[in-house]
Amino acid sequence: MTKLFEQQYRFINIMGPIAHLFNLLCSVEGLGSHNYLDNSLTAENDQPSRFPLLMPQVSPHTPELYLCTPVKVDYTTSYYIVGYEPNATMNTAHHMLVYGCGEPGSVKPVWNCGEMSQDYSADSASPCGGSNPFSELNFVLLSTRTIVYTRNMERGGRLVTTIGNDARVILQMPRGNLEAFSQHVLALEIMGELLDHLCYHEVFDMSAYKNYDYESRISKIYDVNITSKKETQLEEQKTYMAEQLKAQESRTSSQLSEQEARVSSKLETQDAKIAQFQPEVDDLKGRMEQLQLNRQAVLASNPKVKTPSFDGSVPFQVFKIQFEKTAAVNNWSAEDKVTAVFVALKGPEAEILQPIPEYERNSYEALIGALERQYGIEHRRQKPGHISRHCDLDPSGFNNMGDLNNKAGGDEQERILYAWARDAPKLKLPDGVGFKVGLDTPIKYIVLQVHYAHIDKFEDGSTDDSGVFIDYMTTSLNKLAGVLLLGTTGIIPPNSLEHMETACEISENKTIHPIAYRTHTHSLGKVVSGYRVRSDARGLHHWTLLGKRDPLTPQMFYPIENGDPIITGDFLAARCTMVSHRNRVTQIGATNEDEMCNFYLMYYVENDEPLNMKYCFSQGPPNYYWSKPDAGLNNIPNVEASTL
Predict the structure, then answer these.
(1) What are the residue boundaries of the structural domains of the chain, listed by start?
(2) In terms of Cα–Cα distance, which of 603, 615, 605, 629 is closest to 574?
């Protein structure tokens, strides 16, 4: 421990058996606030003891704030956590996580620890880490090789890529989750090139979408006032068009006079010819009436070309072209096209329509969008700020996106021990199962993270002690628990149904026994499902359901659907079915305006150590789907995975 740490903080020793487990990290000034220490239980006859891991009466000052507080584990003894009882409500805490850490992310008793939160700054730190949790992310102007902007990023994070023409940067955090953010310095570079091309409309759209103060930022760099320049350009165009219109009126008047004279002459000639042939016309009309033809009328509704069918044997794009051509020849309305799509799908391919909400089944665009997502066609992402074709820029300077495999791995110094949201009840692990901390483990600290989405109830100065009561034992257990987090990054297009999917292979030579699962999304989640995927001798994948739930119900750990062991070579897969009625793109992020897609799997190993792999994250839509060839999955339960 550093001298600085020793000067600022000291440990409070808790008397009784709890003294062997935890020492609360606490500032000298805050000693009197921890009156809950007297409520600690003691262990008798191998019964669990209890420790209150609670926020020390904090008062959140900004919305969407993440706060962390640590306790130190006595690392000379082994302890086994066997249960958690939450001390929180969803009216106060959006969600809570409990981490096992090698060391806390800060030496402070409470710190801002939301890596994706808008309030993340140089005074922030991750839940786990060291005294210097940051590294620098530098943005370099290639023409001069000079650093034009520097941003702090969590230590251990990696730069994955940037997105061309979109100013987004994608980072991989130490726990494996991929995070995207829009960087102003890149946006200004893109908007500057758009200004050079006189693409003012695209600059305004991009500014509105990214919520940039475009006038002040761009004017400083390009020494122009966009509004003034656009108005001047419009006035010049109006003057030019007025002159052109006046000249055109003069030419048109002259041409009309000439054409009128010619038409009058032709009409006189035609009238003479009609009078000449009128007797013959009258004679033919009489004969037709006498024939009384009764041929069967051809109904306009009968198709001239048969509707093509789709059973997955041909590329979907080929079917789509055939279908559009057929619709044009048959003069189908939008309603006719919807009916024809339902008729065209054959066999298992028809099942993809079942997860589509009833109110979207009458939309041809919604049906085609669902099919394109399923069969690997990168659907069009309609979002404000999309650069139109005539103003496209060369993206080579901004885009180095490649095909990225799913990220699976973990940090031995950080583990998720518990997660809570939406008034979930207490959790008790099965008999004989526990999370080992302390001696012979990398876990020397336990850190509580609480996400305060709203702060209305704290505006009057009220404080909060949300957290969990941890039940633990000192009796040795041979079934050690672990948690594996599956999740995605990606985007959800406006007014769409989207599948956010991930899958990773178990490559470690261990057998894990699943015991519980937990789902988590924000408001757009409808169904979250998790599977064990195992291949047979023929290479056919068999999907075994681990858990499936509406993520807007209490987000507790629920008993596993199938407790069969998971072995080396098996895949773990998860899907979040999202439905958006927003008129904007929704990205993965920390706030309620963003989304998350998480499936937690709690498991145990017998006479072994938990997996080194702590997470399994994919890029998510539109870059990753189970159905894409590079995912290597087959026999996908499309309907089952998205319906309850």
Answers:
(1) 3-29+46-128+416-472, 316-378, 478-642
(2) 615
pTM of the model: 0.56
Q: Which of 135-139, 271-275, 418-422 is least confident?
A: 135-139
CB atoms within 10 A of CB 640: 17
pLDDT tens for each residue of 545-576: 999 999 988 888 899 999 999 999 999 999 99
Between CA 479 and CA 222 the distance in angstroms is 64
Determine the topology of domain 3-29+46-128+416-472 in CATH: Jelly Rolls (2.60.120)
- Helix 226-291 and helix 200-210, axial crossing angle in degrees, nearest 10: 100
Say if 3-29+46-128+416-472 and 478-642 have the same CATH topology.
yes
**Cα separation of 437 and 418, whole Å?**
13
Q: How does 388-424 read in b/e, with b if 16+ C-beta sit within 10 Å?
A: eeebebebeebeeeeebebbbebbebbbbbbbbbbeb
CATH among 3.40.50.2000, 2.60.120.230, 2.60.120.1440, 3.40.50.300 for 478-642: 2.60.120.230
- CA dist., res. 644 & res. 635, Å (int): 19
Q: Which two tokens stand for residue 297?
A: 């009328």
8 Å CB contact between 580 and 381: no
What the block records as the tokens of 40 is 């600690």
- Tell me the chain's radius of gyration from C-alpha atoms: 33
